[in-house]
Amino acid sequence: MRRGLVGLSTVALTVSLLGTTAHAARTPSVASLRSAARAALNAALEGDASTAYGYLSAKCRKTTSEAKFAATLVFGTAFAEGLSKVKLKDFRAGRVETRAVSRKRGQARVFAVDKNGATSRLDNDPDWNIWVYEDGQWRSTDCGSFDSSSADAQARAEYLASVDFSKAPTEIVVDAALGERLDVGDGFTGSYTVTLVDVRDFGPSLTQAPDKYGYGGRAATAKGHFVGVSYRIQNATNGSLSPEEALGGLASITDGKATWTPSRDFYVDSIVENVTGASSANDDLGAGFDATAWVIFDVPTTVKPIGLVLAYDSNSPVMLRLPVPGSSPAVSTQPPSTAPATTLPLPPVTDDPQSYAQYLFVTWQNGNRTAAANVASADAVNQLFAQAYNPATQWQFGMCDPASDSLYCNWNGQGGATVTMTVRTLIGGLPIQVLKVEFS
Questions:
Q1: Taking Cα atoms as reference points, which of 60, 59, 57, 25 lies closest to residue 39?
Q2: What is the mean pLDDT of residues 238-255?
Q3: DSSP assignment of 377-426, as one string?
Q4: Model confidence pLDDT, tens digit, residues 133-188
Q5: For residues 238 and 98, what is the distance between their CA atoms, to the nearest angstrom?
């Protein structure tokens, strides 16, 4: 829960609400854990100190006497009711969430609801508690301390270790309702999509090129090594966002055991690679924008990152799998080795899906993967740049054939070579984008 909240959260911390049920669970299942958590919260809300004490794990009961526990419950209840001006007996246990449940351990959190079944505004983001299954029933390991930071850290660490990042997505749609975390104004609606594009090991030192305001342009040395994650934002909200707010400032990189926050040597907004759409007066990226940016982490040299942990929800973070390393080029002041001697001007992108394919083809000619991400999915960019552009093939544009909600554009080259791009049109209701590139 957020530490600024009072009311039910105070009692939750005080009496270790997420204890065990008064009745032994026959098997350590998710259902029995939820039942225990719900029963424990109801007992605490009713002020039943004698029963609540039995909800603690054996380890907690050794360190906290029943008399001390009862006194803490009375004080916590009075404190919560005095600040919130409500009676805790007017609330009951509602929705129960669980995670990382095994036959011996698990985590749960309970949302309190009022008499009408509405989630209490006093505790709308409850903490996760670690439970253990002992003596035939679930018991809480939270011993009721006001300072629950160590318990929170342990719960996050155990949850992190339970995540199978190989099955995690590389893309997430973020609801603008998370405005409290995104630091935006009232009336912010819609959503935006974050897609992880690439991950790069930049080694022990990295120089960030200056942006248009002169920020950056300095070298930094890592304590371990710099790892960069490139991500693309597609904004379908009604307002402006910065890459820092949208992902960079809310992300931690992980190896599945620990997490590391972004390096303070690099500010995300100053390493935005490209933007399609409007920018606001504050250089935030306006509604309807697409942007690709990097977030840089300083991690120990022995660490091999596997994912990102995104704190859009303080107690239920989103886990994303890192893309295949090297799927796009590192930030550099030098052109790729496959770039032609003369850079061709990029054609305009219009409402015609064919313009997306023609734009993408020129980015391939220029060896510019960064620009390619403006009009194509990460998979399409990877497929196209898997083969270096060779002028000797003498590619010639063929035609674009429409089919249902897609457009198929092809180029022909020497020796019967062909390249075909599948372009998603607006017919399906999604934005125009090159989704697939095939060579033959």
A1: 25
A2: 78
A3: -HHHHHHHHTS---GGG--EEEEEEEETTEEEEEEE-GGG-EEEEEEE-G
A4: 988 889 888 876 655 566 777 787 788 888 888 888 888 877 766 554 555 555 66
A5: 34
The DSSP H or E segment spanning 298 is strand 290-299
Sheet holding 171-175, edge to edge: 171-175, 191-207, 219-235, 290-299, 272-276
Sheet-wide strand order for 251-254:
259-260, 251-254, 307-310, 318-321
* Assigned token pair, 25: 């669970």
As a whole number of angstroms, the distance between CA 237 and CA 220 comes to: 35
Burial of 102-133, coded b for 16+ CB within 10 Å and e otherwise, reads eeebbbbbbbbeeeeeeebebbebbbbbbbbb
- Which pTM value belongs to this model? 0.54
Which DSSP state fits 427?
Answer: G
State both tokens at 145: 């301390």
Q: What is the mean pLDDT of residues 264-272?
A: 61
Amino acid at 332: S
Contact (Cβ atoms closer than 8 angstroms) between residue 192 and residue 174? yes
d(CA 228, CA 296): 4
Measured CA to CA, the distance from residue 35 to residue 84 in angstroms comes to: 27
Q: What value, to the nearest 5°, has the Cα angle with vertex 310 and ends 308 and 312? A: 170
**Structure confidence at residue 124 as a pLDDT band (50, 70, 90):** low
CA distance 376 to 358: 11
Distance CA 308, CA 198 (A): 12
Q: What is the distance of C-alpha 92 from the center of its chain?
A: 31
**3-state DSSP percent of the chain in helix, strand and coil, to 5:** 30, 30, 40
Interhelix angle 30-45/8-15, nearest 10 degrees: 110
Q: Give the C-alpha distances (Å, rounded to integers) separating 396 from 240, 298, 342, 411.
A: 40, 46, 18, 5
Contact (CB, 8 A) for 425 and 408: no
Rounded Cα distance, 70 and 14, in Å:
10
Say which amino acid occupies 106: G
The CA radius of gyration of the chain, in Å to the nearest whole number, is 27
Question: Is the C-alpha dihedral spanning 425, 430, 431, 436 positive or negative?
Answer: negative
- Residue 80 contacts residue 7 (beta carbons within 8 Å): yes
